[in-house]
């Protein structure tokens, strides 16, 4: 994927736009400019770009637009693109029981089609850095992680592939069918192979790999413990689901004699190199432990509401110093598949909690979706804010249409208004979206391929049932 970085040559100038840098001081310009040189931001400032710049290959008039860092997605399950709109009135455990028999039939071509759909939808909505937590590996299904990596490379999105695993099937008290789980040894071996084959730790890398056993109720304690040891030996990050539902907390107390956070700490799963998805049911002690260890959280407001999981205590997490980003989560529990709508949902849902109107501001919501997410993924030195020297992962949002015409504050327009169209999205200085359309893939082909694979999966699952 280094080809994308090499392709970004010369200077691109974007000016005459409002700018929200999301830097440490929340610097904003009512009218400003950004100069991009190769795959990095060269300068950001007020007014028009300096005269006399050399090797300018493109100038973009940003009048009527807001320029922000690209959005960073911190939790997803791409394969679920093929099972949207099912079990719509279920809470998490019932939803999992209903869908696992279908998910257990996925194969490489299905995952590739689903990844293209998931990535395409996110990219169209301003995501420049995506991640996926893939943990279903049915026997004989092919190279499922490789299918996702191939799709991300084709669409040009920066990607963290969280290599998931499950070794606790129904016969061991878990939820997934036995033929959809791996052995302890097999899961660890395949995860290490994925790191050795794909992980690129260099600055500006297009591909990271993380170690990601699925959840406390679908993996053994030994897989959690040895997974953490593997990640630290290899120098990669760790990811799993944590404290998503009240049922999960009850499960942990019954099985381990302690709550989820204490369990995670007992197996080495708290630290600056760890982030958890959801973190809905967190006590004061849990939040203190996450803050003390700087363990990150992926906040997924739409999915949490769709599955009736509850409202995460995001304001309290931020006050405790916990890195917090936003996540789409799988599209079987967030059918829109978009992250920019999560800016709005995060703000609104958290205002239903104890902090009410002071829960989150529009600027905080934007920070969650940009620099907060970059921090969670360990990439805050590279992306997440518009600053000289950082990667040119930027999004130009169109705010002069009917949907935003009377909102004077551009950040409020982006966060609280209708979903803003993306005029231009650059990843490392290379366009991945132009005028609301993907530049590196045919959207009709993506839709057609995903539809065909969804039908094939449904037919196979129905025959197996």
Describe the structure.
The protein has 465 residues and is an alpha/beta fold. Helix content is 37%, strand content 21%. The protein has 15 helices and 17 strands. Strands 1, 2, 3, 4, 5, 14, 15, 16 and 17 form a nine-stranded mixed sheet that branches. A four-stranded parallel sheet has the order 6-7-8-9. Helix 3 runs parallel beside helix 4, helix 5 runs parallel beside helix 6 and helix 13 packs across helix 14. The longest helix is centred in the C-terminal third of the chain and has 22 residues. The radius of gyration is 21 Å and the shape is globular.
How would you sum up this structure in a few lines?
The chain has 465 residues and is of the alpha/beta class.
Attribute tags:
4-stranded parallel β-sheet; disordered N terminus; 15 helices; 465 residues; 9-stranded mixed β-sheet; alpha/beta
What coarse outline follows from CA principal-axis ratios?
globular
Please, how many helices? 15
Mean pLDDT figure = 95
Radius of gyration of CA atoms, rounded to a whole number = 21 Å
Number of strands: 17
How much of the sequence lies in strands comes to 15-25%
Major sheet details: 9 strands, mixed
Question: Topology, pairings included?
Answer:
Elements: H1 2-7, E1 11-20, E2 28-37, E3 40-46, E4 56-61, E5 65-69, E6 71-72, H2 92-103, H3 108-124, E7 127-134, H4 144-155, E8 158-165, H5 184-198, E9 207-213, H6 221-234, E10 238-242, H7 246-256, H8 260-266, E11 274-278, H9 284-293, E12 296-299, H10 301-306, H11 314-319, E13 324-326, H12 340-350, H13 362-376, E14 394-398, H14 410-416, E15 422-427, E16 430-434, E17 437-438, H15 443-464
Parallel strand pairs: 1-4, 1-5, 6-7, 7-8, 8-9, 10-11, 11-12, 12-13
Antiparallel strand pairs: 1-2, 2-3, 5-14, 14-15, 15-16, 16-17
